[in-house]
Specification:
CATH architecture: Orthogonal Bundle
Helix content: 40-55%
Shape: globular
Number of strands: 2
Structural class: mainly alpha
Order of helices and strands: EHHHHHE
Number of domains: 1
Largest sheet: 2 strands, antiparallel
């Protein structure tokens, strides 16, 4: 089981906001946003909440569990 996300989609739905702009808004590095989008990094609860708040969405609208046959 791993954590998936719709972060890239959210950025584009929000006017194609850059990784850099999102990173600055939630006080992390651009590299952290890249790692999140590539599902190489699991965010802390605080970071997940900050990102959800930034996009005015629920955490579950951005982050979700990938189980079993859904894993790549």
């Amino acid at each position: 089981m791993k954590l998936g996300n719709n972060l890239r989609q959210c950025r584009f739905e929000a006017g194609e906001i850059s990784q850099e702009a999102l990173a600055a808004a939630v006080d992390v590095s651009r590299q952290t946003i890249i790692s999140l989008e590539k599902e190489r990094y699991v965010p802390s609860t605080l970071l997940a909440l900050k990102i959800a708040s930034f996009f005015n969405k629920q955490v579950e609208d951005i982050f979700f569990l990938i189980t079993g046959s859904e894993e790549e």
